[in-house]
Amino acid sequence: MEGELLRSWCRAVFSTRAGLPLAVISAAVLALGCSNDGGTGPPPPAVDAGDPVDPVTLDPPTGLTGALGPGGFVALSWAPSPGASRYHVWRRTDADAGYEEVADSESTTALDDPSALATYHYAVTAATKDRLSGYSNEVEVVVPAAGAELTWPNADSQTNGDPWLRQHHDEVAELRPRVLVLLANNLDTPANVEAFATQAMAAFAEGSRYHGYQDPDATPQLVYELDKVADMRDDSVNDWPDDWPTVGAGESLTFVYEGLFSQEFAAHYGYPDPDDPSRFLGLCDLFERGIVNELWVAAPRYSGNPLGVYESKARVQVYDERMDATGVFDSCAANGCFEPGVAGLCNVSVRLMELATDRGTGCATHATGHGMEGLRRAIPYYSANSARFFNFDLIARHGLPMDSQYEQCDYSTAACWAYPDDHTLAKSPEGGATVGDFSFDEWGDGCGNVHFPPNAAQQYDYTGAFPVLSTCESYGQGNGPAGGDLQSPYSSDLVADYEALYGDCGGGWQIYMRQSIPGHGNGGTGEDGLPMKSWWPFLYY
Q1: Domain membership flag for residue 533
Q2: Which of 188, 194, 422, 479 is most exposed by smallest CB count within 10 Å?
Q3: Which one has a higher pLDDT value, 405 or 17?
Q4: Average per-residue pLDDT in the chain?
């Protein structure tokens, strides 16, 4: 009863505030904890001593988000409150306790450095010299024990794009994504497909050992787990099952991605719906429930190309500069675009990969490498920090006539690029490139990309023996002259052992490039001046 009387009094104060002195309103807010919706809560902070307070005419900040960052800092950001000149950041460890002020900011961001393992609740208030807002929305951030290393998926988080992964990005030392392998090739066998998938997983794990080429004790950050092989082979006269989603015939026969997501296809995955035994879980169900994090498809070839997933495809959540999910999904954030259709409009990120059992495991790392390049479309932080690594954005960064070596370089045997010395990139006189003549003598501030190691003369040139400088082995470390990354010579000799183990499609280079990608605890510095995040968790945003 007492609480209801207080709420009624608060509503009366705010409904008649035009006729009340500011001191009365101030008393309602500061002493009794009134909020401008007529309810009560922890009192907002006082403004400068002696200043009148009018919490009604200053809107509280909105859109408060919080995430655990490098070094245990909590990074907070929010949308501005019109007219506000500063903001107060408040924290509590008990949702029923009062707040304590932990930061004061004139911008819409703040950092907090909690000293202990706990679940912290944050809110923000806006202020001017003589006005004060109510509280923003409250966010919760879990701060683990110092030095804690986490694994994902886990009991608290299994689904691609789960906010938990963003919040604990820097503590996740190991990713163990669950993979469903779909066998849709009547000429293959479950045993062969499982064995090949296991080999591919070993290659991915090796590639995620940060600087494994230098550190024999480096541990993998990406350790796939095989959920199962779903065998849909049948007695069809074709190399593919009769239920395989295709359209057309003859030379126009085409795989239809949407078919993978249809309810009619769900039985082939073989996951009964625990809520309705009469149906099977569809592909969106499997991703949205965190049962699987990737689908790998072993399909036959038709006219030389896979009659299934081509290399890697993804439909992923798009994020903004603050790493907040926008609700928009991008179906081109891998190796080109794909059309998921209405059935494929899942509510979480979806990753698909071609499992080419007739090739070497290097083709798997090659295929998903394109997925890592394409992911730049969806995550601004990753885009900003990976552009130089992949030797992208060359026009903006160096004024070159192409944005990357992929562009205006045909797929003939003629060289596109030449390297007159170990630090110069030029157009090759062989005519493989369609750009005008140029020579750039400061080459080597990045690493390379899936088709182009640092010394590649053309598409898929993985055998170049001429040493060319790169920052692969020091990317983001700032350990070179003038604070840049230290350059070192790259040639195919460096990756010969990897090529022997994980060959085909430039597999040796793919492993070396991946081991150069900033991983957990890389010690580098990002474009924002803060410790560089590992790039591997971004795959599951």
Answers
A1: no
A2: 479
A3: 405
A4: 90
What are the pLDDT digits (tens) for 453-512?
Answer: 999 999 999 999 999 999 999 999 999 999 999 999 999 999 999 999 999 999 999 999
**Pair 329, 351: CB distance under 8 Å:** no
- Is 452 among the domain residues? yes
Q: Look at residues 340, 414, 350 and name the one whose alpha carbon lies nearest to residue 378.
A: 350
Residue 289 lies in a domain: yes
> Do both 313 and 189 map to the same domain?
yes
Residues 420 and 271 both lie in one domain: no
Q: Which of 393, 395, 490, 488 is nearest to 438 (CA)?
A: 395
**Of the ranges 13-27, 88-102, 518-532, which one carries the lowest mean pLDDT score?**
13-27
Give residue 57's pLDDT.
Answer: 72
Q: What is the C-alpha R_g of the chain? A: 28
The enclosing domain of 71 has a CATH number of 2.60.40.10
What range defines the domain where residue 276 resides? 150-380
Distance CA 200, CA 205 (A): 9
Burial (CB count <10 Å: 0-12, 13-18, 19+), residue 454: buried
pLDDT for residue 29 is more than 60: no
Task: Tell me: pLDDT of 44 over 70.
Answer: no
The domain tally of the chain equals 4
Span between the terminal Cα atoms of the chain, in Å = 47
Does 154 share its domain with 143?
no
For residue 417, what is the enclosing H or E element?
strand 417-418
- Residue 507: phi, psi to the nearest 5? -60, -35
